[in-house]
């Protein structure tokens, strides 16, 4: 890869697909099904095992460092939970690797001579010591490359101790079986990368194997798978707890709503009861009022009937008294009129007599004057 391509990849990894406004790159989002989720989490076996004898070639899905940058930026705000997809991918790959390991073991068991359990245990011990030596040497080389010389020297001292143990184990294994059989190469399948290991491999070959890209790549894949399993379990547990908490809150809200609804219904019932009571009270009051009114009417009627009979009797008595009084009054008025008539008569008679006397006296005087 040229320096310009490396710079472009670095910018993509840092800034994402929107770094230069290229709309064609922005059309594919990191959430697309065509994008490799293992690549976004930096654990795709196609990238890790590239350049080894188990190179898987290019991945069938999209690999883009800019999309990984977009995923890392977006995951800070909302977790898309791509760990589950990556875990499924790695589990299928590791299951295939373990299947190949079991097939290799069966093939070795068929081709190699059968040995007793005691000899097999001694050979297994030699293999384990070989693995320890190879791992320590690979670690010492890595520390030396990083510049940590002191730690590298300490690990080399440990390697010498393990080599001494390996010599003792090889002596025990050689003494437990005939020389012809001991000289035969005993192979063993690596449990990590399913590669073949020899019982009599030298330290250089062991260091190359255990420090090689293939073995370290499988270790990285297996460690990443374990990490993804823990992460998925934690997130699923958290989501289950959140789901249970939301369910409890919903049930609590529904319970509170039912309680409030029951309270409202109780209030409505109490209000309706109160209304019915008020209506019954008002109806009873009206009934009592109507009864009292009817009683008052009845009393009034009785009183009127009584007062009517009394008034009729009183009227009759008053009429009798008035007739009597009227008769007496008429008699007195008659008598008075009679007396008045008598007086008027007598006074008229007197006036008439006086007028007659005057007239008579005038006539006599006239007569006397005539005679004179």
UniProtKB/TrEMBL annotation:
Residues 94-172 form a coiled coil. Residues 236-257, 328-355, 362-372 have a biased composition (Basic and acidic residues). Residues 258-327 have a biased composition (Basic residues). Residues 236-372 are annotated as: Disordered. GO terms for molecular function: mRNA binding. The gene is LUC7L. Belongs to the Luc7 family. One of its GO terms (cellular component) is U1 snRNP. It holds the Pfam family LUC7. This is RNA-binding protein Luc7-like 1 isoform X1. The lineage of its organism: Eukaryota, Metazoa, Chordata, Craniata, Vertebrata. It comes from Eublepharis macularius (Leopard gecko). Keywords: Coiled coil. One of its GO terms (biological process) is mRNA splice site recognition.
